[in-house]
Amino acid sequence: MALICLASLFPFFWMIVTSLKPDTEIFTVSPQFIPHEPILSRYTELFSGAIPRQFLNSLLVAGATTVITGLIALLAGYALARFDIPMKRYLLIVILSIQMLPQTVLVIPLFVVLRNTDLLGTYQGLVLSHLALTVGLATYMLRSFFMDIPVSLEESAMVDGASRMKAVRLVVFPLVWPGLAASSIYGFITSWNELMFSATYMQQSSRETLPVALQQFFSSYYSDWGGVMAASVIFTIPVVVFFLLVQKRLMQGMVAGAVKG
User: What are the TM regions of this chain, as residue ranges (predicted)?
Assistant: First the structure.
């Protein structure tokens, strides 16, 4: 486990160290794990430029995508797990088939839809395009969690006088929090890292997201690796924070709350 953790965390360590190195130390033949003269000027330059605005744009889009994905997947996953829907098996196949489509196949159809609805270049349009990438798998994940929860728990609540909605809200939804946390992490990371839709649909520089902003460090003749690493550190922080916030729910047992007094 120690070796696995070391292999997983080393790229992040190297990213942070490289962001603090001057250019002369980045391109040395022998790797330097600790910079001799660490510099913070790259971070001050980033925060004095357009990065704060692009950071907020990414946070807004990823946050909205996560919330909407969780809400839709929660309701759709419960319906697919509990109700006898006509042609449900084929519907599940369609949901999974959407996830197998290459992202490039969706660019032009979504572009036409957003243009015809006057959502091109708006936050709402970008969120809707990200939902095409997140809702399908999140729904399938939550359906699996709902199927693992015994139906007898809901029936017991309804025998005691609760309606179906009240039984679902008070009994089932609290037990499915680990699945909601897992699907939320998936939705947030997918939206946060998405580049193709953001670069195609957000044509105004004031609404660019961070993945689009990272491209500005590369040109035909020069690549600012120090700047890329500094921006990547900022890019990584929200994902780590979001995971730390939901890890408790993510690690909980599926029906741990059912046996508590």
Answer: 55-78, 90-114, 126-146, 167-189, 225-246
pTM, two decimal places: 0.82
Q: What is the CATH number of the domain that holds 115?
A: 1.10.3720.10
* 68 domain-assigned: yes
The range of the structural domain enclosing residue 137 comes to 56-213+222-259
Return per-residue pLDDT of the chain as tens, 261 residues.
999 988 988 988 999 998 888 888 888 777 778 888 888 888 888 888 788 888 899 999 999 999 999 999 999 998 888 888 888 888 888 888 888 888 888 899 999 999 999 988 889 999 999 998 999 889 988 988 888 888 888 888 888 888 888 888 888 888 888 888 888 888 999 999 998 898 888 877 778 888 888 887 777 667 788 888 888 898 888 888 888 877 776 665 444 444 444
Look at the chain and count its residues: 261
Cα 187 to Cα 214: distance, rounded to the nearest angstrom: 21
User: Is 209 domain-assigned?
Assistant: yes
CA-based angle 244:250:253, to the nearest 5? 140
Q: Is 27 inside a domain boundary? A: no
Residue 252: inside a domain:
yes
